[in-house]
Amino acid sequence: MKFDTIIVGGGSAGGILAARLSEDANRSVLLLEAGPDYSSADETPEDLRNALTVSVTKHDWGYDAEAVPGRRMDYARGKAIGGCSSVNGCIALRAVPHDLEEWASWGNDEWTWEKSLPYFLKIESDQEFGDKDYHGSDGPTPITRFKEHELVPLQKAYLDACKERFPYVDDHNDPESTGVGPIPMNRNGDLRMSTALGHLAEARGRSNLTIRGNALVDRVLFEGRKAVGVAVVSGGGTEEIYGENIILSAGAINSPTVLMRSGVGPRADLEGLGIEVILDQPNVGQNMIEHQQITVGVIPKAGVTHVDDPDVQIIVRYTNPGTTEFNNMQIYFVSRYVPESHRPISVMNVLQKPKSRGSVRLKSTHPILPPEIVLNSYGHPDDEKIARDGVRTCWDIANAPQIQAHCEGLADTLTQEIVDDDEKLMEYIREHSGTIWHPVGTCKMGPARDETAVVDQYCCVHGVENLRVVDGSVFPNHVSGNPNLTIYAIAERVADWMKQA
User: Fold this and answer.
1) pTM recorded for the entire structure
2) Is residue 458 within 8 Å of residue 466, measured between CB atoms?
């Protein structure tokens, strides 16, 4: 069978694309997902249903990454229908207007805030602020926030401590909001509303939509430079499936690796692995940008935290002093007790607009084997300064009397002596920092004149035909917020363009 559209990856973007494109009964759509396909909320395992915590073990690719030279870390990526929207923390924060105006200023004029806002509205049904002109009220993704009486003790203490340092915010998706307040979340009660449950559920009955789980795409098939299909590993064998339009929505790690296995990537790397070069494109897998995080651990008193508590409920967003990018920092309080994990109860700061850039490269042509992921965290001196400032702010908050009233002190990995010394503090950051698994940028969006771009602003791959990349890998720069909702908006917009073509 030949399909009108083949979508590789059933995650945050792919699920939306499949749902929207299959609204046209005359378009046959195939959605391929490397992980299992759970066709309903009842069939979905509990770890993917639970909106109160991340799920980074049972449905994961098993990747690791070099965080800084000499230190590696586990690197979680969702492997199930819904992708990372099925395993993440359900934090539903948008990009801020400055982010998208920056994209537009680099030659992507379709991505201004004014042109993008309708798609943020389209995806959501905001339970508290749906009557505002910058919110949606009837979209497939419910957005809600914890009320103050629902906060667990440490989250209430965190809110009280931060109110003395930051303005209070009731809606972090107000485009001008900054400060401390409840996190907007894509959940229905405790049920995680992934794209699998929010978008695909209503589309599953359509005869023109085929969804296949446990179908790993090895590569895109080309005739010359025209994409004509995909090679799929499934059931112990490989099959070729053909389509008029091919969309890679496999995420910022796997979309570039599929491209490279297909012969679109850096010539020297591809030839070194014996891959026939379709297009010498040195930028595939480059420009990887990650939200870097550092924690200040606290030791809660017995009985203060519980295994069923939410991971997080309150967030601070602010602009780091001495910088100009709006809301370029976040601070969470991770207060859920996880006995099988080494993750501490902690105040955690996250760099939203790092200048450091990493990369994704193939180590093998085999699609099962992991790529080489290099984060290059704090590889730019500006990131070092912002990280130190952030840790010092977290240290101050962790020592606040409101929090210490529930604690026995701070973890001994960080001391006042280290906090006060730039060099020692940077050593601590490099040794203990991680990420919140938000890779973007590895198939960067930009006009043809941009020598670093992989796709144009319509997400079509430069230099080949009938091939798009639609997911977080197309971000030209990171956003001052968790990327999931921005990925949703990109998928909605590209689906509209394709339906109108």
Assistant:
1) 0.97
2) no
